[in-house]
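job 3f2a | input accepted
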Amino acid sequence: MGFFLTFEGLDGSGKSTQLRKLATHLEAQGLAVTVTRQPGGTRIGDRIRALLLDSKTESLDPMTELGLMFSARAQCIAEVIAPALHGGNIVLCDRFTDSSEAYQGGGRQLGSEIVLRMHRTMCGGLNPDLTLLLLANFDQSLYRARRRNDRTASPEGDEARFEREDELFHRRVYDKYREIAARDSARVVVIEGDRPIDVVHQQIAALVDQKLRSAGLLPHPTATSVR
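job 3f2a | predicted structure (227 res):
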């Protein structure tokens, strides 16, 4: 069995950048790494993602939104995540059920119970071995996310639907992430603040290496003899 690691946080927190850097770090050590994302990660999931994230999608009921998120997730588990874990890979996933609890449970005010119940049903209770929650400065994260989406938008569509929600929505998301981290402190490691990308990467790489060694997936460094 492999190791399942998820990255969480507000858009603009730097989680996707850190996931890519960690994948490179792990591959350099000879580990088999599978990278995926939520929603998406499969042909069907990417079609659902386009609907969910495009700002032109209007009047989507929160329960419909939640159901679509879990539909994409279940497909990704079946096609990508479960086979990779069974093959002994390290799976790095950009968002998972914590995002649904934060955005739909918190932001949309559906509450945690319905999200966790759907997780048990749709995901078979599959939980990450480790979650890295990047909680950068709230205002800066939101600014970066909105600026990025404005820059990458095209006539064919964008991924700005959530970023266009008001500040109160994003505050509820942020607060729910805090609640999840406090509740599941054995699984969720919070990476606080705005620091240089490479500084955060070094912290994450050291933490993940330690976890993988404890799981027997990465050998312990050989002690250097002193003459």
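job 3f2a | The mean pLDDT is 92.
job 3f2a | closed
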